[in-house]
Amino acid sequence: MPDSDCPVIVWFRDDLRLADHPALCEASATGRKILCVYILDEKSKGIRPLGGAARWWLHGALAALRRQLKAKGGALLTFEGEAPEIFDQLVRQTKADSVFCHHRYQKPEREQDDIIAARLKERHVTLFRAHGTLLRAPDAVMTKSGTPFRVFGAYWKAACALGDVPAPRRVPSHLSFYDPAPLTSLPQLDEAKLLPTKPDWAEGLRQNWEPGAEEGEELLQDFVAHALHRYDRGRNEMAADGSSRLSPYLRFGHVSPRQVWAAASKVPGADTGVFLSEIGWREFAWYTLYHQPELTSRNLKSRFDVLEWRRSTADLQAWQQGRTGIPIVDAGMRQLWQTGWMHNRARMIIGSFLVKHLLLDWKQGEAWFWDTLVDADPANNAMNWQWVAGTGIEATPFFRIFNPLLQAEKFDPHGDYVRRWVPELARLSDKAICAPWNETEETLRQAKVKLGGNYPKPIIDLQQGRERALAAFRKTKSSEAAELEA
Question: Which domains, ranges and CATH numbers included, belong to the chain?
Fold first, then answer.
């Protein structure tokens, strides 16, 4: 019989909440005292360190979870180091016989969990894993032949055919916590080091975001009540606040996809279906990463391995800094830098511009987003970049090249999005602001715009960039034909 004075451990990962937390519910059901821990492991093999914006968010997220636990009479211990080694010490010091957590779906993390489970088993400790971060387990939705889906539409139809999404679970009514005071000898996480200092570039993040489950649930309810009914139209209006902005709260698990599903499903109408399919796209990204672990590191369409990406530090930096001379692109990149987030339509425009007009490797864009987005997660970040590049599953064809001028005219017709993020162009007319290089010197002078001065000239002729991209694409088609003939 287990010692009733010994705790069970709840290991928080990307699920920093108390509501709809199956692992916490299962731990509570044991009737034992609970020890809550978080481990920042950036040393184990294959584990990718967090980007700067995500580290900033994590700092706030841990503080918010700690407040939630304190209100229930509990505490949160945070450690830094290799998770297997930390658990060796934890179970030795606490004599815990059970660890509860949620499944992770990246290959390195899955393998690490298997290692931890085996090492704990040697100590007669059980690692219990529940599904708590997706609507469906990635191996629950398969084709009739038992293979993974490669197209979202077919995947989503099959996923929806499985029946109703389970209702989110409530916070356990009875939580009893273990006193963590004796565990100070373990390698504690210095949470202050998660914040940027020299320089402190996070002022824009602080002005725009408040990490935490309470904030995520409030945002969800506000979106459902006031914006969901016009989501299909509003999500593409770049200057409006029509998207849910829930992505970082989902990424860190402040709200669960089941909570989002349950709240949105109460609102009838076509817009709700469109929004829920976006939750489905998130599911599909994790599904794809689970079945295709190389999603983050190589082209899923191998014929693109022969594509000759350009190498241009100057063009990459101009893109990163929002100094390309293409206003709609620069607006998106400056929104990203200042807020840690970017409008979804802008993500598509600037992604296409990087990989097609500039012909720079999508992996460079993925790496920049990983470092600067507060909502960057391994699955969505990589799959969306492969989608816009045309190199992955469910990809937009490489020859479909977004024209940033037409995109601006359609989705920012009055230039309000550009004016907000590229204020040096604010005095230009609605028509002139998307392509100032087409205006006369007098028009620019009156608007106090000097191309090559306070605003850069375009770093690429859009038509020439398009033609270069298509020429590169034709080479991949030739390579594919040669492979088929062989």
Answer: 1-132 (3.40.50.620), 134-167+214-291 (1.25.40.80), 302-478 (1.10.579.10)
Segment 364-384 mean pLDDT: 97
Q: Which band of pLDDT confidence, cut at 50, 70 and 90, is reported for residue 5?
A: confident
Does the annotation list 429 as a binding residue? no
Annotated binding-site residue? 245: yes
Is 484 flagged in the annotation as binding?
A: no
State in Å, rounded, how far the first CA of the chain is from the last one.
65
Q: Is 377 annotated as a binding residue?
A: yes
Cβ–Cβ < 8 Å for 349, 332: yes
pLDDT band at 399 (very low <50, low <70, confident <90, very high): confident
Write the CA distances from 330 to 90, 326, 344, 403, integer angstroms: 49, 6, 14, 14
Q: Is 29 marked as a binding-site residue?
A: no
Q: Does residue 480 surpass a pLDDT of 70?
A: no
> Which residues lie closer than 8 Å to 438 by C-beta, 6 or more apart?
432
The answer to whether 244 is annotated as binding is yes
Q: What is the pTM assigned to this prediction? A: 0.95
